[in-house]
Design a protein that fits this description.
Blueprint: E1 3-5, E2 12-14, E3 18-20, E4 28-32, H1 33-42, H2 44-57, H3 59-72, H4 74-78
Antiparallel strand pairs: 1-2, 3-4
Length: 79
């Protein structure tokens, strides 16, 4: 079984304890799932404000993407 060390908690864990990331050479994220959850909980307000800011800055683009998706998938959405 392949093991990897999480740099956040400094614990050696199996690859199943890491989220997938296709862009990385080993196919998993740098930090383990538990550390990801802890990071999100510690920085919830910061992350949420960034999401709101990006959503407001790109509102027209997002609305157009949603309109196109709805038009192409109307039958499945209404089912």
């Amino acid at each position: 079984m392949i093991m990897k060390i999480c740099p956040e908690c400094c614990v050696e864990k199996t690859l199943e304890e890491f989220n997938k990331h296709r862009g990385r050479a080993d196919g998993v994220q740098r930090i383990c799932r538990l550390c990801c959850i802890n990071y999100r909980n510690r920085n919830r307000n910061k992350i949420n404000s960034q999401v709101r800011k990006n959503r407001n800055n790109n509102r027209e683009k997002t609305n157009e993407i949603n309109r196109v998706y709805y038009a192409q998938n109307r039958i499945e959405i209404r089912a």
